[in-house]
């Protein structure tokens, strides 16, 4: 590792990654409540989402136990439960 510390199991040998900090953000996704949120769990080191119910829908929670470690994976999971294209979910997450 050439004398460098390795943290978090990066993709390349000797790569040093910085631990992420937990956060929580609002999520505006058509057809879902404006109270919907998503974020990052720094204990499990993965993303999570809570789609809050709007008229005629039940709320959906994808917790950190789902171990979604990339934003693309989270967007795919959101798309699956929200019934929207993955690119729409990704844009909602990054807005």
**What number is the mean pLDDT?**
83
Structural class: alpha+beta
SSE arrangement, N to C: EEEEHH
Largest sheet: 4 strands, antiparallel
Instruction: Indicate the radius of gyration in whole angstroms.
Output: 16 Å
Cα distance spanning the termini: 38 Å
Helix count, per DSSP? 2
Report strand order across the widest sheet.
1-2-3-4
* Broad shape: globular
Strand residues, percent: 15-25%
* Fraction of residues in helix: 10-25%
Count of folded domains:
1
Q: Give the uncertain stretches in residue-range form.
A: 1-12
What is the total tally of β strands? 4
Q: Which labels suit this protein?
A:
single chain; 95 residues; alpha+beta; four-stranded antiparallel sheet; 2 helices; 22% helix; 19% strand; globular
Task: Please sum up the structure shown.
The chain has helices at residues 71-82, 86-94; strands at 23-26, 37-41, 46-51, 60-62.
3D structure, described in words:
The protein has 95 residues and is α+β, with helices and mostly antiparallel strands. It has one domain. 22% of the residues lie in helices and 19% in strands. The chain is built from two helices and four strands; from the N terminus they run E-E-E-E-H-H. The protein has helices spanning 71-82, 86-94; strands at residues 23-26, 37-41, 46-51, 60-62. Strands 1-2-3-4 form a four-stranded antiparallel sheet, with helices on one face. A hairpin with an 8-residue loop joins strand 3 (46-51) and strand 4 (60-62). It is globular, with a radius of gyration of 16 Å. It starts with 22 loop residues before the first strand and ends with a helix.
């Amino acid at each position: 590792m050439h004398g460098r510390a390795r943290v978090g199991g990066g993709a390349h040998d000797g790569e040093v990654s910085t631990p992420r900090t937990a956060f929580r953000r609002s999520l505006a996704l058509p057809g879902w409540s404006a109270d919907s949120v998503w974020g990052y769990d720094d204990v499990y080191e993965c993303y999570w989402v809570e789609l809050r119910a709007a008229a005629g829908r039940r709320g959906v929670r994808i917790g950190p136990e789902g171990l979604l470690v990339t934003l693309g994976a989270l967007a795919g999971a959101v798309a699956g439960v929200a019934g929207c294209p993955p690119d729409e979910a990704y844009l909602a997450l990054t807005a």
